[in-house]
Predict the 3D structure of the following.
Amino acid sequence: MPSMSNLSRICILLIKAKKLDVSILKQLKAYASSNSLKAFEGWMLRKIGKLTIGPDTESATEAEHWVKKAIKSDERNGARWQLAMDYALYSKILEQLEQEEKAEHTLRKAKMIDATCQAG
């Protein structure tokens, strides 16, 4: 199952990478673009977003781009629990971008979605 292998590769790179460089980002993009399972699409995009988070605003903006793609994907594919995880990460990114009010709103949204997943 190539998509599962690519998800595993993304996770391994996430563990290995101490600092994101262009070659790793290129590999991650290739793995995500070759995905054929909708269930993994948002997950992969969120993992890439998580990996791109760094100490500066530029890296947070890059991470925000990937997490927004993950949110769109998981909304489109009905992956509710993954969507909750997307919003939780997005909240952390917004905190880094010093958008506290939006970060709090986004975290509440993540918790609400998570609660509906647990109740269902």
